[in-house]
């Protein structure tokens, strides 16, 4: 299951300057749904939570599901182009040892990769779900068929699943569905955003020096 996750996880990219209004505080949840043989048994599926991230401006606190049992270091603090792991929200200001964000190999990865075969994209009809309207774009290859869902909005985030889609379609890429033809496997990467931040995470981010 973890091998599958590493193969299909899209990486985040720090968002550059944009004329739209930037969201300065909130929460992001990232999860993936895997359907192993959708053409034969749609119930052979699993939901994999990937990460929760709380942010204020360009500072992030990431919580990984595997770390929530506290057997390992539960948090990652991300700021600028560096990150640190820590285990106590009240001591976030005491962090002194940081690492290169490009070398972060767990949870969300912040890189600036482009979408493969982006120039071959095709515009599909719009769709609606969960009360929002989405632009749909498809990229097809011999091995897979991928549909990207972009919520058109004047708001931007300090992170992005794909700056290419966000800029070209004036919105936020929230979901990526991929069908792997040879393996008969369907995956759906979904990003949800909210303004709600628990008080302990808000205080930690708000008190940063």
How would you explain this protein's 3D organization?
With 209 residues, the chain is mainly beta. The chain is built from three helices and 15 strands. An eleven-stranded antiparallel beta sheet has the order 8-7-6-5-4-3-15-14-11-10-9. The longest helix has 8 residues, at 199-206. It is globular, with a radius of gyration of 18 Å. The model is unreliable at 1-11 (pLDDT under 50).
Write a concise synopsis of the structure shown.
With 209 residues, the protein is mainly beta.
Architecture blueprint of SSEs:
Blueprint: H1 2-8, E1 13-14, E2 21-22, E3 25-37, E4 41-56, E5 59-63, E6 75-79, E7 82-86, E8 99-100, E9 122-129, E10 132-140, E11 144-152, E12 155-156, E13 159-160, H2 163-168, E14 171-180, E15 185-194, H3 199-206
Parallel strand pairs: 2-12
Antiparallel strand pairs: 1-13, 3-4, 3-15, 4-5, 5-6, 6-7, 7-8, 9-10, 10-11, 11-14, 14-15
Report the strand count.
15
Largest sheet: 11 strands, antiparallel
Low-confidence stretches: 1-11
Mean pLDDT: 83
The gyration radius over C-alpha positions equals: 18 Å
Major sheet: order of its strands?
8-7-6-5-4-3-15-14-11-10-9
* Structural class determined from secondary elements: mainly beta
Oligomeric state as shown: single chain
How many angstroms separate the termini?
A: 39 Å
Order of helices and strands: HEEEEEEEEEEEEEHEEH
Which percent range fits the helix content? Answer: 10-25%
Coarse shape: globular
Number of helices: 3
Strand content: over 45%
Key features of this structure:
mainly beta; disordered N terminus; 209 residues; two-stranded antiparallel ribbon; 3 helices; 11-stranded antiparallel β-sheet
